[in-house]
Write a structure and sequence with these properties.
single chain; two-stranded antiparallel sheet; 11 helices; 5-stranded mixed beta sheet; 292 residues; alpha/beta
Amino acid sequence: MLMPDLSERIGCALLNPEGMLWLPNLTEELVSSGWQDLNQKCGLSPYNYSTDRVIACNIDAPCNRIALLSMLPNNQDENKTIKIDILSEGSAKQYEDADIRFYTEEEIRGSSVLSCVNDALKIMDRVPTLAATVVALASSLHLIKAKNDDYDVSFSEPDIPFSIFVSIPQENNSINTLRVAEAILHEAMHLQLTLIEKFVPLVTKTQQKIFSPWREEFRTIQGVLHALYVFRVIDKFLECLLSIQNHPVEKLEYIQQRRDEIEEQVNKIRSLQGHSELTMIGACFVQKLIQN
């Protein structure tokens, strides 16, 4: 009996009401396809990858790596770690217009930001299938220095397929590590959905926009669908955390507050259901996410 092709299996997984939203059984194949594309384009692999090398499409471009962090216990395989990298001056400069500033190596080594990231990864490891998915997707992590500890910023870019950019508070405490875990998961899931869309289109290529409660602005249907997906994954992650361990009151209140916020935001985009720009699978997937 022939194994259904990857596109068919992804489509079935997206519509499976009982399946995990982060598709742990398919991530390895999705990631492998992404690496094949990147290798053909720039000659890059998990072992010589860096964000600078993707931007330059040159395997001889800089790679300033200062740490390897793993969510998987006793894992020594560099391919299964998240690399903490420092962008070259030229690459970092392109983000200055967006008011993005990155921690320097000296700032990282002289503060608790690295331990905050490590603690955030340990939180995600409480959900092993999710941890394995994240570490497969997020090869390189760049640490953003936000304006203050109460200000979160993160992003990823489809053209830089295995890198994420996340702000790290300078104070390491239980709430801040939850915030960082959420941000890492958020950006990894954007990368995941981008890989999924190469096999299973969810949106037709037009430019209608609807209001996004997450950005508080009008965004494309694809942009709102991405937000819906990543925040539903975050909600499921927080739900898992509540079910597997006891938490101090402060942490419980924070988790419940975040889940309530996400539910309120999802309720504001119910009009996305059945939108004309969604493909058939996209429409069914949106319905599943909204009703989940």
